Amino acid sequence: MWTLDTKNKTGQPARFPLEIREPTAVLFGKEGRAIAAGRFQTELIPLDGGARIPIPLPQIKQVYALAQTADGAVWAGTDGGAARLSPDGGWDLFYGPDPAAVTLPTTLFDDGASLWLGTFGGAVWRIAGGRAQEIWPPLTPQQANPTSALLRDGGGALWLGLFGGGAARRDGRTWTTFTAEPDLFQAQTVDAAQAADGTIWLGADRGLFTIGGAADDPVCRFEPAGREILAQALAADPQGNVWAVSEGALWRGNQAGFQRVATLVQPAVTAAPNGAVWFAAAEELAREINGRRQTISLADVPGEATDIAVGRDGRIWLGTTAGAAALEEGQWRLLTTRDGLGNNEVWRVRPLPDGSVWFLTAGGGSWLRP
Known about the structure:
mainly beta, Methylamine Dehydrogenase, Chain H, Thrombin, subunit H, seven-stranded antiparallel sheet, globular
């Protein structure tokens, strides 16, 4: 792991360059703070070289997800429970009969008032005010389906997508389940998004599904237009389009039909603050907004794109198999191990509000300071 200082153009080796070889979760938090967890490691590892932070849960073996709430606390979802590390260094622990913890990385999020955790055991936990409440308990362990997607819609309702168990909506204290659609009940839901018209879209290994209509009588249906789209990720733009990544292809459309937009190098799509959608095709970077597409050649960028991110300043960042690249005034600026990256194989790029950028590489984390 290396820390990169562009002002002095130096790379500083951190205290544990070989410590995080198989990261399971990385948190890019506030004030430039970054924390990682590795396979079969039971401690939080600050990427600035600070001391390890043991998680005091009994029988813990691995951390699966990390999140930070508005108060600055860091949450860890593990195979032995959930744990909250407060800014003052104190721990609050949550564990019980259902390991409130073995969370999929996509099912841990903060809505500003509560932290929500989905579990492999099929339960959903709401944690607020230092208390944990199970709000979606499985009927029996045999009937449980892993919670694989969580979505808060514009009206405040909570939506669940399940692996092989349909979908559910919590409006206030009332649950509505959607299992009548046979294909959805048998499908493995991967992601969820809300379109501009309020329709809920579910991406699954059997295609795309929608839940919409009157609030008191919603209808769940399999979308014929999305029959060929075995979604890996979903996103919605302000123009009413739904974007879906499926088997190396990017699709855009709605209930009237979908159009294949591009072949992707990596199943990564990101939306900029202005609503533009960015993605990496085979030989170019593409930006699409209001139906117009702009392409930028990747001929000067070595390797294959692995991740895309847009900073608040509008700067585009690419992670690649041969380093990282930033698009500045139409030109690519390249970063490699010579500039301080821990490894040229960059997996994730995360720009922070203060202008710094974190890179998760095969050699650990690297922090680029403005």
